[in-house]
């Protein structure tokens, strides 16, 4: 038992996050994590050692001054604390919820060497939520530079680039193909992890900074990058993301009841099919749902399927638990809710009923061989281990590739053989005045790395514009 | 907007609506307008039919999809079915402007739904009419077989119900006439992000929205497409009926 000294030097355990109870939450789309109370936030903030040489900041792709904002929080100066965060990160309520802090700032936290690291993400979330409840304060606008910029795609990369550019006094128009802004934040990540009202509020803030938003504008079709430039735009940032779903090329993949994770999540999140027929877009969920893949997208799909009323949801992954790429917290959440994982198995083909609807899936068992290029152990099929699994809904979550239209319609824009746009460390592409960042450059990555890229490119665009006469 | 023949738009009638694709049947670049013709088959198209001049919809995205390849092929056969006759005539018009001689076939279930016959006549070398029940013109498309025996065509464009495009493709195949069909799989985003529009063409998976909507009719797996179009039939019927009986009156004003 711990003794009752009034102030132990380092409290080893983080303050746990209050959550909805697993049984109840598996039936609703409300947010799972409820957020710290003021007392909990202060208690957690007090675990920060205010290190003289902090390591956490180097783990943050947008270099938030973490000890500084925690210090302000400790002193209960919430307004100053959130202002400190927002000087580096314009989407804190989102990042506080979806960033893999365990691999970033918290991985470097010195408290983490003796116990659990300070839960920086939850503190960021606390402050962002506090500010949203108070009402945002809009920083003063910089002197207009008279330069015009366009930002393609309103995902985290584009939103960040737009906010940075407008803060520097440039005129910014965002061109977004979908009818709502947010990118993956709005169409991919489910409500129970990231409420859409929060995405709306943070996008609203960026609009209030002065960014103009043009929805339903698909660059490459409605207009092209060269046309945008010809029409008097001085610089363009492309943040069009990696949204093209991959399929496996297996027999029967076109049967009814087989969705790409993107289709499934777009129906549920963007089109709100969970509220059909109040909303017009339908979705059909069977009793036995199978999700193929093991990343965050697979977890999100599985947990959404459960909430839509599936009796059983099984994740089929070709490697073992150790290699699961999803965030640990999300795997735990999924398992608590009753989702089962079948490891070391991969599908071979799908079997349908007489109406062309999937009714079963043939799989094969795998064993792990030596590591492959990705550094993870390569799965090898075990001969003769085929088996049949009954299922009436299959969700394929095996990855996404870059959205291709802009690359196909912009002459001179260099791309890799994977279809990503080639950009240097400042986001500069092969074309004068065209910059790019986020998933469209790196392939599928994270919200914060996309934001970091948007920010770096905005700085480079600013320098370019101020030099150009 | 810079619409071209062969492209489509996606519209959403209200905040809670579905995103539905419609083929562009005419456009005016100066005014920035596009025209579409549609069939009232479900809730969205029925609601769309209730709108008056001056009303507006939530969003329109487009033009989407690849434009048609319009050039001088020589002699072109254009076959349109039901509501897709309207966008077909845009093809007829531009094909003619490109120097082609165009023969147009208008098809429908029954004679009452044959539309734009006069317009077609004004633009084409020759116009044939066919109905499923023979109530006007030829019965079915079998007459095309005789036509192809007599006349040589260099190119064929077919737009209409999937079964019709399938039949036309089967008829032109033995004559080796390149046949372009406009596929209408279910779509959501129309920008390659969901994959619901996947179709099999030449044994390969293609996305209707970004790889199409036009494909080589001799290589399309039409039966697979028909099956996929029916995926949400029960839900769509339910939604349409609920709306008609007033279960949800939100769009009635
Ligand atoms: C289901 C799911 C869950 C995830 N969970 C997490 C998580 O928990 N934590 C995390 O850090 N990351 C997560 N990710 C990854 C993260 O969301 C992405 O890395 C990030 O969104 C990339 O940002 P982006 O701005 O580059 O692109 P996107 O968010 O993809 O945004 C691109 C935007 O560009 C628009 N666009 C595309 N083409 C055009 C065009 N031609 N014209 C106009 N607009 C266009 C798109 O509509 C979209 O709005 C998840 C991804 C998915 C799919
Ligand atoms: C590229 C493309 C171009 C199109 N162009 C036109 C056009 O110019 N004019 C026009 O009237 N229609 C066109 N369609 C079809 C049109 O999109 C559908 O009729 C519409 O989505 C139906 O919506 P709804 O809500 O009214 O009916 P729903 O309730 O969604 O469906 C009602 C009925 O229509 C069927 N249906 C649904 N989606 C489609 C589809 N994509 N294709 C065929 N049948 C469908 C359903 O199976 C059901 O039987 C096009 C489709 C695509 C993909
Ligand atoms: S409509 Fe979604 S990918 Fe084509």
Quick one: CATH superfamily of the largest domain in chain B?
Nucleotide-binding domain of ferredoxin-NADP reductase (FNR) module
Number of strands of chain B: 13
Q: Note the beta-strand portion of chain B.
A: 25-35%
Spatial strand order of the main sheet of chain A: 3-2-1-4-16
> Cα distance, first to last residue of chain B?
30 Å
- Average pLDDT, all residues of chain B: 86
Give me the secondary-structure category of chain B.
alpha/beta
Question: From the 3D coordinates, which CATH architecture of the largest domain in chain B would you assign?
Answer: 3-Layer(aba) Sandwich
Shape of chain A: globular
Shape of chain B: globular
Largest interface, and how many residues on either side?
Answer: A-B, 40 and 45 residues
Number of domains of chain B: 2
User: Roughly how many Å is the radius of gyration of chain A?
Assistant: 23 Å
Euclidean distance between termini CA atoms of chain A: 70 Å
Could you name the ranges of chain A where pLDDT drops below 50 across 5 or more consecutive residues? Answer: none
CATH level 1 name of the largest domain in chain B: Alpha Beta
What amount of the residues of chain A lies in strands? 15-25%
Rounded radius of gyration of chain B (Å): 18 Å
Secondary structure tally, helices of chain A: 17
Mean pLDDT of chain A: 91
Structure summary:
Helices cover 33% and strands 16% of the residues of chain A.
């Amino acid at each position: 038992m711990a003794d009752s000294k009034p102030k132990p030097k380092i409290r080893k355990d983080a303050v746990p996050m209050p959550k909805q109870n697993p049984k109840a939450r598996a039936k609703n789309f409300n947010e799972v994590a409820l957020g710290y109370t003021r007392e909990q936030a202060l208690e957690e903030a007090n675990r920060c050692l205010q290190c003289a040489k902090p390591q956490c900041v180097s783990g943050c792709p947008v270099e938030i001054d973490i000890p500084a904002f925690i210090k302000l929080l400790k002193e209960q100066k919430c307004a100053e604390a959130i202002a400190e965060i927002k000087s580096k990160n314009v989407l804190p309520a989102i990042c506080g919820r979806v960033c893999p802090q365990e691999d970033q700032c918290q991985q470097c936290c010195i408290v983490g060497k003796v116990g659990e690291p300070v839960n920086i993400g939850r503190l960021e979330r606390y402050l962002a939520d506090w500010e949203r409840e108070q009402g945002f304060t809009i920083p003063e606008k910089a002197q207009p530079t008279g330069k015009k910029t366009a930002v393609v795609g309103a995902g985290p990369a584009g939103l960040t680039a737009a906010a940075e550019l407008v803060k520097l006094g440039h005129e910014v128009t965002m061109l977004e193909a979908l009818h709502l802004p947010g990118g993956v934040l709005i169409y991919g990540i489910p409500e129970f992890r990231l409420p859409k009202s929060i995405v709306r509020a943070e996008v609203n803030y960026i609009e209030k900074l002065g960014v103009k938003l043009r929805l339903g504008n698909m660059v490459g079709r409605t207009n092209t990058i060269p046309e945008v430039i010809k029409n008097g735009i001085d610089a363009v940032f492309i943040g069009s993301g990696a949204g093209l779903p991959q399929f496996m090329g297996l027999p029967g993949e076109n049967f009814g009841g087989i969705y790409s994770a993107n289709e499934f999540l777009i129906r549920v999140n963007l089109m709100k099919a969970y509220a059909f027929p109040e909303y017009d877009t339908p979705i059909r969920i069977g009793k036995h749902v199978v999700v193929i893949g093991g990343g965050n997208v697979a977890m999100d799909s599985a947990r959404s399927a459960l909430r839509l009323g599936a009796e059983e949801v099984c994740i089929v992954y070709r490697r073992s638990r150790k290699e699961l790429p999803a965030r640990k917290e999300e795997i735990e959440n999924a398992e608590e809710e009753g989702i089962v994982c079948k490891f070391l198995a991969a599908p071979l083909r799908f079997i349908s009923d007489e109406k062309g609807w999937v009714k079963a899936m043939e799989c094969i068992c795998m064993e792990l061989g030596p590591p492959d290029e990705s550094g993870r152990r390569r799965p090898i099929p075990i001969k003769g281990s085929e088996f049949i699994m009954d299922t009436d809904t299959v969700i394929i979550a095996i990855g996404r590739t870059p959205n291709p239209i802009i690359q196909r319609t912009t002459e001179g824009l260099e791309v890799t053989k994977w279809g990503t746009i080639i950009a240097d460390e400042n986001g500069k592409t092969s074309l004068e005045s065209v910059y790019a960042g986020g998933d469209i450059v790196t392939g599928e990555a994270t919200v914060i790395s996309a934001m970091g890229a948007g920010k770096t490119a905005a700085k480079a665009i600013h320098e370019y514009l101020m030099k150009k006469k | 907007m810079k619409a071209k023949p062969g492209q489509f738009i996606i519209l959403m009638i209200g905040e809670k609506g579905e995103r539905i694709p419609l083929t562009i049947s005419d456009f005016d670049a100066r005014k920035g307008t596009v025209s579409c013709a549609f069939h009232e088959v479900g809730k969205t198209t029925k609601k769309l039919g209730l709108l008056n001049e001056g009303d507006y919809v939530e969003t329109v995205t487009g033009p989407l999809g690849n434009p048609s390849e319009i050039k001088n092929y020589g002699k072109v056969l254009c076959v349109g079915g039901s509501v897709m006759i309207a966008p077909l005539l845009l093809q007829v018009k531009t094909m003619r402007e490109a120097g082609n001689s165009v023969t147009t076939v208008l098809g429908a279930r029954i004679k009452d739904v044959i539309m734009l016959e006069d317009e077609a006549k004004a633009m084409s070398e020759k116009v044939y009419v066919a109905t499923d029940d023979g109530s006007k013109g030829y019965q079915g498309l079998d007459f095309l077989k005789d036509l192809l025996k007599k006349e040589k065509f260099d190119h064929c464009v077919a737009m209409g119900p999937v079964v019709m495009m399938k039949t036309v493709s089967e008829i032109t195949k033995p004559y080796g006439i390149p046949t372009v069909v406009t596929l209408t799989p279910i779509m959501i985003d129309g920008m390659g992000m969901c994959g619901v529009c996947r179709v099999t063409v030449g044994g390969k998976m293609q996305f209707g929205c970004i790889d199409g909507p036009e494909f080589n009719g001799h290589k399309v797996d039409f039966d697979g497409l028909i099956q996929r179009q029916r995926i949400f039939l029960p839900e769509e019927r339910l939604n349409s009926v609920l709306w008609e009986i007033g279960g949800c009156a939100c769009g009635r004003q």
